[in-house]
Specification:
Layout (H helix, E strand, L loop, with lengths): L12 H9 L5 E4 L12 H15 L4 E6 L11 H14 L2 E7 L3 H11 L3 E5 L14 H7 L3 E5 L34
Parallel strand pairs: 1-2, 2-3, 3-4, 4-5
C-alpha cells in the first residue's frame, strides 16, 4: 500500500510521517524578535528558536532556516558566531539550506560574504522594489552562486488587495512591521 492510500496506525505512524515530510518543504525564520536574548541573532537564541520550531512543526530538520535580520548585534559582533552555528547545523543535517533576509542591498553585501547563504530573501512587491536597481541584481547574483531567492511582500504588504485606503484606514498592532509606515498612513 502506498503512503498516499495507507491509513496510519500506531505501528506505521513514523513511516507515514516520514513519507509525508519528504514531500513538503518547510522553512522558517529567526532573528526578528530577540525574546530574552541580548540581540535577535544571538547564537543561543538561534538554537533555542530552532529547537522550538522543530518541536512545533513535528519534524527533525528544516529545509530552510533564514536569518530574518541583517542586524547581528552591536557592531555585528554575532555575525561570525551565527554563521558558524548555521553552517554546523547544516553539516549535521538539521537544516538543509541557510537563508538570509535583508532590507537593502548594502545589508546583503555586509553579511552574505560571512553567512554564505544558500537562499536570499528580500521584499519585492508587484509595484517594484529597491532591489530593481541593475547594480543590485540579487536574482543574478544568487543564480551565479547556485543559490535561490525567496520574495516576501509580493502583494506590497497587502496594499494590492484593495482592503486598505482612505475609506478603509488600516489598524495594525504594535508588533506589525507596517505600523507607522508611510505607505500605510491614511
Amino acid at each position: 500500500m502506498s503512503p498516499e492510500t495507507a491509513t496510519p496506525n500506531a505501528s506505521s505512524d513514523a513511516s507515514w510521517r516520514r513519507a509525508r515530510r519528504e514531500r513538503v518543504v518547510i522553512g522558517t525564520n529567526v532573528g526578528w524578535f530577540k525574546g530574552t536574548a541580548p540581540y535577535p541573532t544571538d547564537p543561543r537564541h538561534i538554537r533555542h528558536q530552532l529547537e522550538e520550531s522543530l518541536a512545533n512543526l513535528g519534524t527533525d530538520y528544516l529545509d530552510s532556516y533564514d536569518l530574518d535580520n541583517a542586524d547581528l548585534g552591536l557592531d555585528d559582533r554575532s555575525l561570525n558566531d551565527a554563521a558558524d552555528l548555521l553552517h554546523g547545523l547544516q553539516r549535521q543535517g538539521t537544516i538543509r539550506a541557510i537563508g538570509q533576509s535583508a532590507s537593502s542591498f548594502a545589508d546583503f553585501q555586509g553579511v552574505c560574504p560571512i553567512v554564505r547563504p544558500n537562499i536570499v530573501q528580500f521584499g519585492h512587491g508587484a509595484t517594484g522594489s529597491a532591489f530593481d536597481d541593475p547594480d543590485a541584481d540579487v536574482f543574478a547574483r544568487a543564480e551565479e552562486r547556485g543559490g535561490g531567492t525567496v520574495l516576501f511582500s509580493p502583494l506590497t504588504q497587502g496594499l494590492l488587495l484593495d482592503k486598505i485606503g482612505p475609506e478603509h484606514p488600516p489598524h495594525f498592532g504594535e508588533e506589525d512591521g507596517r505600523a507607522g509606515g508611510p505607505r500605510f498612513d491614511p
